[in-house]
């Protein structure tokens, strides 16, 4: 290799070696790229995690969101790719964004209802009926809104190459609507409305640069679903228009992440309602990203008056259940892709979670450091991996925000028993009324720790349970631990409170 090529080779190698150093010396772009993105923290390296290959993917995730000139390189790559194919097939989000007629953008995720053969409704869908029945027992009404699909609404604007392979709409929305009707659940088919709006109204239910419905489409859906469900007869008094898009009306265009903008001529419209009388009781809206605009227009129409819980893309957690149980109605809002094909997607995970947990007003493991908002207690030691010990001769619990119903409280417990003290006795009180005596004896089964809480014992949405322990003893006294002076007796693993 002659001197000239040696210098070029050394220069290239040196440049490549300098790229990681740019992070060390701070030459990096911290500005996030457009679209949903998770900025991860640098993982700590440990010998075990490295050997088990747990560290490597975490480091890769961190590097992908932190490497130097990240935003610049991403925009450069997408711009070059778009120029190479005249902007017809885009590189953003793994090439999922495609450009149709009249500069309309589509996301291929939503092509699923356009298939040569119409797919069957998955058996998992049957859980909607089970959820309806569970909620009905708690005097909560279930409603379903089938949010529209942009591809189904504008099939003639799809790129020809996709229409050739995918065929025509196979009527999946009609099948979903019919099935939900068979379950006895009120359902509103917003796809029918979106198609009618496109054909017969001045304003469009989607924008050319967004994958989700716009505020006009969501607002009209709130108006028509409220009428069909018998909630209210909403009146639109004005249509607001502006040049700046609302939240979702440029979400696909933003994901393109290229140097030059994608700006087809468009105006963004939003219906302004005459304020309605709020619906009685609390409303809970559960859905995917389409639920955001529905919720916003639901509030702006005056249907909630602030009494509303909303759960969108994030998974449900145990602490959400008490709020859902306080509701008068639950509205599920999903578009057809999630309803029909994403069996491991968020709607089925939420259905499973609700069915597993909604019968519980409280489900708390004492090993958890995060205590539910509606639970207070005193007289327990710090949590351990299995649970928590009582500390002293009294343990007190207070359960708040309880539903107006007869309840059952069930404790999962164990006792600290040794040869010198092979028994423990506990007197149990509900609101200062003695209701049970738990007796623990070495070699014997644990006592029945289920307590019935009648509605008459629930005062201002709360009740108390007090446990008086006869025989607490410290591990230091028994010689089990030279430094542990806690007076322990009963170990609490879990408590569940459910509607009877």
Structural summary, described in words:
With 500 residues, the protein is of the alpha+beta class. 33% of the residues are buried. The chain has a five-stranded parallel beta sheet, sandwiched between helices. Strands 10, 12, 14, 17 and 19 form a five-stranded antiparallel beta sheet that branches. It has a five-stranded antiparallel beta sheet with strand order 11-13-18-15-16, with no helix packed on it. It has helices spanning 3-24, 47-51, 55-64, 70-84, 92-95, 127-137, 150-153, 160-166, 172-182, 190-200, 215-228, 251-255, 291-300, 321-325, 336-340, 346-357, 475-478, and strands at 97-99, 105-107, 141-147, 187-189, 236-242, 268-273, 282-287, 308-311, 327-335, 360-365, 375-378, 388-389, 394-399, 407-415, 423-430, 433-441, 450-453, 463-469, 490-499. It starts with a helix and ends with a strand. The mean pLDDT is 85. Helix 6 runs parallel beside helix 16, helix 10 packs across helix 11 and helix 11 (215-228) crosses helix 13 (291-300).
Comma- or semicolon-separated keywords:
19 strands, five-stranded parallel sheet, alpha+beta, 500 residues, flat, five-stranded antiparallel sheet
* Tally of DSSP helical segments: 17
| Helical content class | 25-40%
User: What is the rounded distance between the termini?
Assistant: 85 Å
- Uncertain runs are none
Query: C-alpha Rg, in Å?
Result: 30 Å
Please count the beta strands (DSSP E, at least 2 residues each).
19
Biggest sheet: strands, sense, closure?
5 strands, parallel
Task: Average the pLDDT over all residues and give the rounded result.
Answer: 85
């Amino acid at each position: 290799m002659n001197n000239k090529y040696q210098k070029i080779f050394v220069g290239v190698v040196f440049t490549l070696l300098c790229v990681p150093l740019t992070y060390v010396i701070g030459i990096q772009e911290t500005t996030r790229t457009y679209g949903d993105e998770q900025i991860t923290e640098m993982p700590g390296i440990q010998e075990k995690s490295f050997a088990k290959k747990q560290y490597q993917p975490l480091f890769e995730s961190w590097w992908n969101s932190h490497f130097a000139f990240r935003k610049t390189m991403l925009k450069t790559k997408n711009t070059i790719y778009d120029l190479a194919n005249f902007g017809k097939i885009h590189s953003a989000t793994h090439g999922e964004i495609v450009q149709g007629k009249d500069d309309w953008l589509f996301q291929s995720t939503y092509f699923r209802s356009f298939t040569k053969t119409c797919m069957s409704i998955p058996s998992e869908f049957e859980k909607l009926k089970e959820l309806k029945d569970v909620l009905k027992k708690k005097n909560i009404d279930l409603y379903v809104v089938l949010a529209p699909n942009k591809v189904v609404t504008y099939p003639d604007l799809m790129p020809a190459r996709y229409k050739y392979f995918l065929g025509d709409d196979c009527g999946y929305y009609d099948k979903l609507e019919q099935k939900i009707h068979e379950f006895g659940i009120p359902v509103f088919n917003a796809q029918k409305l979106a198609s009618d709006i496109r054909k017969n109204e001045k304003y469009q239910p989607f924008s050319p640069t967004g994958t989700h419905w716009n505020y006009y489409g969501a607002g009209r859906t709130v108006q028509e679903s409220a009428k069909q469900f018998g909630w209210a007869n909403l009146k639109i008094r004005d249509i607001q228009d502006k040049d700046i898009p609302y939240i979702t009306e440029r979400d696909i265009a933003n994901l393109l992440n290229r140097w030059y903008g994608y700006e087809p001529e468009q105006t963004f419209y939003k219906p302004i309602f005459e304020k309605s009388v709020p619906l009685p009781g609390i409303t809970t809206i559960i859905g995917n990203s389409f639920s955001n605009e529905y919720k916003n227009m639901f509030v702006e129409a005056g249907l909630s008056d602030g009494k509303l819980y909303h759960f969108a893309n994030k998974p449900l957690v145990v602490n959400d259940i008490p709020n859902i149980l306080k509701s008068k109605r639950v509205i599920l809002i999903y578009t057809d892709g999630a309803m029909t094909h994403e069996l491991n997607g968020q709607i089925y995970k939420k259905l499973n979670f609700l069915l597993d947990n909604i019968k519980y007003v409280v489900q708390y493991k004492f090993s958890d450091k995060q205590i539910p908002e509606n639970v207070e207690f005193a007289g327990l030691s710090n949590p351990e991996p299995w649970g928590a010990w009582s500390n002293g001769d009294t343990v007190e619990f207070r359960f708040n925000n309880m539903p107006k119903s007869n309840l059952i409280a069930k404790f999962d417990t164990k006792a600290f028993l040794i040869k010198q003290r092979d028994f423990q006795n506990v007197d149990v009180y509900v609101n200062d009324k003695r209701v049970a005596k738990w007796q623990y004896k070495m070699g014997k089964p644990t006592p029945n720790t289920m307590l019935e809480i009648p509605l008459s014992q629930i005062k201002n949405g709360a009740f108390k349970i007090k446990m008086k322990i006869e025989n607490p003893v410290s591990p230091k006294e028994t010689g089990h631990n030279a430094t542990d002076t806690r007076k322990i007796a009963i170990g609490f693993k879990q408590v569940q409170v459910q509607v009877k």
